[in-house]
Each structure stands twice: as structure tokens, then as C-alpha cells.
Specification:
- This protein is of the alpha/beta class and about 210 residues long.
- It has a six-stranded mixed β-sheet with strand order 2-1-3-4-5-6.
- The radius of gyration is 17 Å and the shape is globular.
- Belongs to the HAM1 NTPase family.
- It is an enzyme of class 3 (hydrolase).
- It catalyses: dITP + H2O = dIMP + diphosphate + H(+); ITP + H2O = IMP + diphosphate + H(+); XTP + H2O = XMP + diphosphate + H(+).
- This is dITP/XTP pyrophosphatase.
Length: about 210
């Protein structure tokens, strides 16, 4: 494992919600970071078929364009009754013809697909959020960190916090959806804590333990 010896990195994302969440997580460690969107880097084509492949594509593109280490996240919602969909195509389910993304539409697509399969009770609506962080260096070296959180797909959507599919995901052991939780509640982790709740926080915790801590 390669340790990160700088606190200056690029957040390899153009997704405003994702950038904000990563900023919340890296903030306590004193990182100086700019996003690929701020630096006006082109978005690479995510041609991978796994979260790991797409995370690497994004991180390596920003690392090589900037000459600095870059941290990316590829994440998605995996629904068991839908054979793992939308999975790596989670963002694609929200795409409109004009290229914009509408996650209210995407959540309705998930609900419609579940209804078509007769998945109406909570035990038939299990799923998980998956996050894979990739830390890449300009020389092509990468480190991967995966986090998952189990839960249930609920309907109708609840809450206006978070982003993406958060309002329809109720994590296991909680009565609230991610859309009803504050950032602190959703992540459930800060430096020194033993536990992390969200998929991204769990991946980030492993990243900290692997690449930052002595």
C-alpha cells in the first residue's frame, strides 16, 4: 500500500453532491482540494462494468491531467429484486435526453421496476449502496477502497437532504432514509470514531486507515 504524503489532491468528480460529501469527509484532515469540475477537466467516458473500473478511470484521468494525486468515487444503488440494477448505471437511470440528470425520475424508474416484479413488501425490497474510492497518482499507481451499506428501498421518497437516490434508501437499523438525515447522521463517522454508516464514509474510513494513518 502506498501512503499519501501530501494533503493537496484533486477530487475527480463533476457531481456537485458527491464533491460536497467528499469535502465534508476530507475536511478534518486539512486537505487542500479542488474538483475536476473546478479545474475544467473533461469528464472521461466511464466504460467500465464495475465500480472499481469506473473509479480508476476517473481518478487516473484527473491525476494525469493535474500532475497531483486524485481521489475519485464511483458509487451506486444495487437492488436485489432488480438483479443488481441500476448498479454501475445508477447515474444513467437519471439521464434525460438533454444530458441533464433527474433523480426524481430515476427513483420512479426503480419503483416502477420493483412494482413490475411484485416487490411490494420490505423483505422483497432489499438493496445496498456501494461506494468505491480510488486514489490515483500521476504515475498510474492506484489504491482502491470499497464501502457498502445495506438497506431497504422505500416509497414514496422521504426527505430533501442528501442527493441522488437518498430519499428512497432506508439503511438497516434506522427509521429514517438518507434523505431525512443530516450529513453528520448519514456518514456517522469522523476521525477517531470506530463506526461509519454511509457507504462513502465506510470507504473513506478504510482510505484513512490505509493511506493516511501511520
Amino acid at each position: 500500500m502506498r501512503k499519501l504524503d501530501t494533503r493537496t489532491i484533486v477530487v475527480a468528480s463533476h457531481n456537485a453532491g458527491k464533491i460536497a460529501e467528499i469535502a465534508d469527509l476530507i475536511g478534518p484532515f486539512g486537505f487542500s482540494a479542488k474538483s475536476a469540475a473546478e479545474l475544467k477537466f473533461a469528464e472521461p467516458d466511464e466504460t467500465g462494468t464495475t465500480f472499481e473500473e469506473n473509479a480508476a478511470i476517473k481518478a487516473l484521468a484527473s491525476a494525469r491531467a493535474s500532475g497531483m494525486p486524485a481521489l475519485s468515487d464511483d458509487s451506486g444503488l444495487v437492488v436485489d429484486a432488480l438483479d443488481g440494477a441500476p448498479g454501475v448505471y445508477t447515474a444513467n437511470w437519471a439521464e434525460r435526453e438533454d444530458g441533464s440528470r433527474d433523480f426524481a425520475m430515476a427513483m420512479e424508474k426503480v419503483e416502477k421496476a420493483l412494482a413490475e416484479r411484485g416487490a411490494t413488501s420490505p423483505d422483497q425490497r432489499s438493496g445496498r449502496f456501494v461506494s468505491v474510492l480510488c486514489l490515483a497518482w500521476p504515475d498510474g499507481h492506484t489504491e482502491m477502497f470499497r464501502g457498502e451499506v445495506e438497506g431497504t428501498i422505500v416509497w414514496p421518497p422521504r426527505g430533501t437532504k442528501g442527493f441522488g437516490y437518498d430519499p428512497v434508501f432506508q439503511p438497516e437499523g434506522f427509521d429514517s432514509t438518507f434523505g431525512e438525515m443530516t450529513s453528520e447522521e448519514k456518514h456517522g463517522w469522523k476521525p477517531g470514531d470506530a463506526q461509519a454508516l454511509s457507504h462513502r464514509a465506510r470507504a473513506f474510513k478504510t482510505f484513512v486507515e490505509t493511506c493516511l494513518e501511520a
